[in-house]
Amino acid sequence: MSVFEAALDRIFGNPSMAAAVWISAATSEERPIRVIRRAPDRITEFGAGRFVSDTMMVDVRVSDVPDPRTGDLIVIGTDSFTIQGEPTRDRERLIWSLDLRPS
């Protein structure tokens, strides 16, 4: 295990990280996971206008969800979200960043 993997285990193991459930759209497999929630504003330019929209993103360990796909569900508490767009990994290939929309 690398030092990065050990650090991520400590970060994601912290009780303040959100507990969630990943549900595969293809197989209906369910798996409990830990996520880091992010909700950055996204600025989109259209012609001369700029639009600010809310987003919901989560970071998930690759070891928890090896192959997330568009359409999979992430349930955090009573809130359900669908993965939209292509999941992306960090440089070390240890963390997925998932763009979500409410289900």
- Total DSSP E strands: 8
Termini separation comes to 36 Å
Discrete helix count: 1
Sequence of strands across the biggest β-sheet: 1-2-5-8-7-6
Structural shape: globular
Biggest pleated sheet: 6 strands, antiparallel, barrel
The radius of gyration over CA amounts to 15 Å
Here the CATH topology equals Thrombin, subunit H
- Determine the mean pLDDT: 89
List unreliable stretches of 5+ residues.
Answer: none
Strand content: over 45%
Percent range for helical residues?
Answer: 10-25%
The total number of structural domains is 1
Secondary-structure-derived class: mainly beta
What is the CATH architecture term? Beta Barrel
Secondary-structure blueprint:
Layout: H1 3-13, E1 18-23, E2 30-38, E3 41-46, E4 49-54, E5 56-61, E6 73-76, E7 79-89, E8 95-102
Protein name: Head-tail adaptor protein
InterPro entries: Phage_tail_attach_FII
Pfam families: Phage_attach
Give a structural overview:
The mean pLDDT is 89. The chain has one domain: Thrombin, subunit H. Helix content is 11%, strand content 54%. It has one helix at residues 3-13, and strands at residues 18-23, 30-38, 41-46, 49-54, 56-61, 73-76, 79-89, 95-102. The chain has a six-stranded antiparallel β-barrel. Strands 3-4 form a two-stranded antiparallel sheet. By secondary structure, it is mainly β. It comes from Tabrizicola oligotrophica. Pfam families: Phage_attach.
